[in-house]
Amino acid sequence: MRRPASRTGAAHDGVQGSHGGSAVSEMPAELTRVQELVYELKIAQIMTRDVITVTPDCAIRDLKELLRVKRISGVPVLQDGALVGMISIENVIRALEKGELDATVGDKMTRQVQSVYADDSVVSAVRLFARLGYGRFPVVDSERHLAGILTKGDIVRGLLHQMEVQWHTEEIHRYRASHIFEDIESDQTGLILRYFVRPHDFVHGGEASSKIKRALERLGAHPRVVRRVAVATYEAETNVMIHTYGGEIIAEVRPERMRLTVVDSGPGIDDIERAMQPGYSTAPDWIRELGFGAGMGLNNIKACADEMKLNSEVGVGTRLELIFALQ
Amino acid sequence: MTLEDVLAAIDGKAISTGIDLSTSVAMSCGADLMSDVLTFTHAGTLLLTGLTNPQVIRTAEMAGIQAVVFVRGKYPPPETIALAEEEGIPLLASRYTMYETCGRLYQAGLPSCGLFELASKTWLEAFGEEAGQQDRRGP
Q: What is the CATH number of the domain that holds B91?
């Protein structure tokens, strides 16, 4: 589990244990999501796995120190690996009252142990907490070996964590950024995305295109248009990566169309007409070995975009402007 | 054709763990030039390639490639596998050459991506005759 290993919550919880009324048992009925989760979640998913245990021959005096130092309120008692009892801070207090600090855990422990199964749903434990008022239950696996310990604090933490996880997943799945075009009122709403492209960086190359593709998908553009934009952007991004001193890609998205501007800071193309000829390439060998630089990029960009403008000045840089209809 | 059928036809292996072998591919493209992949494929294509660098995966992502088969017994480096996992693109391996891998799949009934306007134009310029039936599935 992803929660902190500290068991301070368990101690607090355990002291209150016999008072009944816990957060879990008093949850209002309208919290249907929590109710669902209580049925869905297995005890194994939320229990504390690192259990501190004692043996029956442990002195109450030593147990008192263990509970204090570890800040816990009760532990399972194991003999030869088998669960034989539970002992809690209440047993210790009663022993203290009688001046029996030298007695053993075996003398004072509760032998009628109520345990829960790791693969049972959390709801069974919630019912037991409400009915019996214990502060904790040992958790056993199908062979009745101790697998963990469960407190009300574990349940509350487990539920909160799971709700957070589900909320995030839902947000990612359901959130469609296309709402922004309806939610935000203006005479003309547009979204501007800007990405920097580093020269010769084949490790991160393509990330800008990948992000633009994802943005368009989230904005609800048609998959065919998204593919055309993605391919053209990626061709342009690799061109900047291969041939220039670096540059940037600016995507300006409006509900009905988008403009993609790719600018770099040189060296510039001396003969655009020749650069547009299929198969013409100035790419070095190492680029060709990576599968690029076949001299088809600009042609492919032109085929993908609805409009294309290419301007370049040697020593200054190149500016490529593409328009895509989105509707 | 499902990825399971693909593996059977090429006697291949899955590189990615936990891939859904019932995923289907509609057509295939064999290329060592990523520029070709970006120009001459459609969404839903199975890519056969001998290149193993991570840009193959980026290219596949952009072109909407359904799955990638590395031919000639090549095994991709970890960064390629990691990127493919991130993008959810299944990776397969074939010990056969590009030609034989293509041939086996074509024989098993997996079609090509068809003819393309761009290629037809070049053909027309070179030979001055009709390129034949346009068979373009994509936009």
A: 3.40.1390.20
